[in-house]
Specification:
By secondary structure, this protein is mostly helical. It folds into two domains: 85 residues, no CATH class; 85 residues, Winged helix-like DNA-binding domain superfamily/Winged helix DNA-binding domain (Arc Repressor Mutant, subunit A), CATH 1.10.10.10. Helix content is 61%, strand content 7%. It has a three-stranded antiparallel sheet. Strand 2 and strand 3 form a beta hairpin.
């Protein structure tokens, strides 16, 4: 572990100085950031973004945020393309004549053209980028650590904002959760 994780996590240190559990809160932020960069953010190629956008638009017209959310949902949460990759892809697909954009209520809604439908049809039988070999295993491998990171973040929040009674309740909940997790492994 790096030096940033050593020392008194619960004492005043760095930006968390002066608030209870400030050192712990900073450590959790660092741990979450490292986890998200290395485990939760698989890199996809630009061609995968293109294929994914065409695939989700084959079902129904959507605006950009819906496209991003739909890809995230279909990938089981393991891939959420950034707006910085989706919107240029949408522009490229429009330039190629594969999609059209219709503005309504200040939002552009994108839909496939006949050429776009033909493009999607030509890739039928191939798996979507989120279904590629190894992607489902990657999704399964990140679900539990992600849940653990969210739990740790909630515990850190209780440590910094909760009353002594709330902190004690949180400790009891976490102890019970730990026991239950070990009992899962003990089952056969």
């Amino acid at each position: 572990m790096s030096d940033s994780f050593t020392g008194d996590w619960f004492g005043p240190r760095g930006q968390g100085a002066g608030r209870p559990g400030g050192g712990l809160w900073e450590a959790m932020d660092q741990l979450r950031d490292m986890f998200e960069q290395k485990v939760m953010t698989p890199r996809m190629s630009r061609g995968d973004v293109r294929t994914a956008v065409l695939t989700v638009l084959a079902d129904r017209p959507m605006h950009g945020y819906q496209i991003i959310s739909e890809i995230e949902e279909r990938s089981g949460g393991t891939w959420k393309p950034s707006p910085g990759s989706v919107y240029p892809t949408l522009q490229l697909l429009a330039d190629e004549g594969l999609i059209t954009a219709e503005e309504s209520n200040g939002r552009k809604t994108y839909s496939l053209t006949e050429a776009g439908r033909a493009e999607v049809g030509s890739t039928e039988g191939r798996s979507a980028p989120w279904e590629a070999p190894g992607r489902k295993d990657a999704a399964r491998a990140t679900v539990l650590p992600r849940a653990g990171a969210k739990l740790a973040q909630a515990a850190a929040q209780v440590a910094t904002s909760g009353s002594p009674e709330q902190v004690q309740q949180a400790v009891e909940v976490l102890d019970e959760a730990r026991r239950k997790l070990y009992s899962i492994l003990a089952q056969d």
